Q: What sequence folds into this?
């Protein structure tokens, strides 16, 4: 049976384990390129997952530190989904055969950053379950992330 959705693999690790939320840290930083932030909007921002499930795995995140969907305001929900759609359009330039779009709420459900809710947008291709083993080399991962970041920035600029 083909494995199609394994949210528990989507751990987003900031490298350290202090109390500060990785998304809030990234928001406070002005180094968006290094943090793989694609753009900041009014109430949300979009960044690439440093530990992608597939090439092009991005996350759409509210700027406010809220853990659950129930706490989101109407404006935040609208912008989260608007930017989810925008990323799907941008990722179409990678010619995926499908997408997984989803939210893991709580550690038990596989949330890598349980205190700060976020939407995963994961482009899918046939046979892409081999992606992680292929990218076992850390150097290859970072080169690939940078290349993907540039491609996505170009795709986003074309969307206007
Ligand atoms: Zn946070």
A:
């Amino acid at each position: 049976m083909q494995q199609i959705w394994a949210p528990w693999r989507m751990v987003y690790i900031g490298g350290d384990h202090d109390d500060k939320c990785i998304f809030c840290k990234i928001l406070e930083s002005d180094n968006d390129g290094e943090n793989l932030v694609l753009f900041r909007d009014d109430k949300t921002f979009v960044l690439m997952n440093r530990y992608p499930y597939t090439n092009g795995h991005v996350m759409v995140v509210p700027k406010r530190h809220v853990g659950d969907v129930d706490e989101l305001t109407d404006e935040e929900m609208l912008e989260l989904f608007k930017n989810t759609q925008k990323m799907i359009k941008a990722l179409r330039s990678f010619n995926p055969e499908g997408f997984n779009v989803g939210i893991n709420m709580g550690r038990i459900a596989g949330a890598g950053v349980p205190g700060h809710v976020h939407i995963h947008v994961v482009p899918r291709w046939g046979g892409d379950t081999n992606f992680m083993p292929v990218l076992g080399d850390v150097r290859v991962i970072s080169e690939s992330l940078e290349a993907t970041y540039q491609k996505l920035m170009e795709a986003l600029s074309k969307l206007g």
